[in-house]
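User: Write out your own:

AI:
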Amino acid sequence: GRKLFAAGDAYVGAYVHGEKHGAGRYVSSDGTVFEGSYVKDRRHGPGVVRYANGNVFEGSYVDGVIEGHGTKRVYGGGVYVGAWKHGKPDGRGTDTSKTGDVYVGDFRAGKKSGKGVVTYGSGDAATLDGDFVDDRPHGAGRYVSSDGTVFEGSYVKDRRHGPGVVRYANGNVFEGSYVDGVIEGHGTKRVYGGGVYVGAWKHGKPDGRGTDTSKTGDVYVGDFRAGKKSGKGVVTYGSGDAATLDGDFVDDRPVKGTLTYADGAVFVGDLDEEGLPKHGVLTGADGATYDGRFRKGRPLLRKGADGK
C-alpha cells in the first residue's frame, strides 16, 4: 500500500489491519528515508535509515526504537559499530572518528563510559587503555605515546589528575602527583644513568623544597624555582676538594655561601660562575686566613705580598 501523511511524509509497503506491518519504505518530509521491517505500525527488526544530512544507520529495531546491533556512518567520516539500547550506542562497540581515532570499549546512553581502549589517529599511533565517563578518560588509565613513553595513573575529565607514573622512552622515570594535567605537588624523577630529584613540583617543574642527587654523587638539599636550584641550599659533593657548600643559589649555580673543604679549610664569600671562590675569606685547616679576591678558586696574591 501507499500512504501520504499531512506533514508531507510518505509510506510505501505492507499493511495489515490498517497498520504498517512487514517490509516498507518511509520517506520523511526532510528527505530522511527508512527501509526495513514494521510490526504493528512500528519499526521492528532489520532496517536502514539514510538521513537527510548524509548519515546512514543500519541495524535492528525493537518496538520502534533502535535496539541490538547496528552500524552508524557519519557523513564526512566517522563510524560506530556495536550494541544499541533505547536508540543510542550502549554496551560494547567500536567508534572510529573522522580524524582516525579508534575507540573499542563500553558505551552508556550514547557515550563512551566504562572500560575502553583508544588508538589515536593523525599518524602518532598513541594508545590509551582505561576508564571512560561521558566520552572522556576518567579514572585509571594507561597511555602509551608514539615514542614509547608510558603513563600509568589517574585521569579526571580527560586530564591526568592524582597519582601517576611516567616511564619515558629515554629511560627516565617520574612518579608523583598531577593536578589538571600538570605535575604538581610531590614527586620523584629518576634520570637514566644516574641522578634523582625528590621533592616539590609546580607547573611541571621542580619548585619548592627538594633534594637533587647528580650522577656524580653530588647531593643538593634546598630550594628550587621553575626547575632550577634557586634560593637557600646545601650541597654535599661526591668528589673534588670541596666537601660541602651552604649558601645562596640562582639559576642552578651558587652565588655566595660557605665552602667547607675536605681538608678542613673554610671559605666564606662570593662565588664565581663555576661555584669557586671569587671574593671572601679563606681560613685554612692550620688557622691561617686570606681575605681578598680569588681566581679559579685560588687566592689572588699580589707581587711582593710576602715581603720579597
About this structure: Residues 304-308 have pLDDT under 50 and may be disordered. DSSP finds no helices and 27 strands in the chain. Residues 1-76 form one domain. Residues 245 and 259 are 5 Å apart (CA to CA).
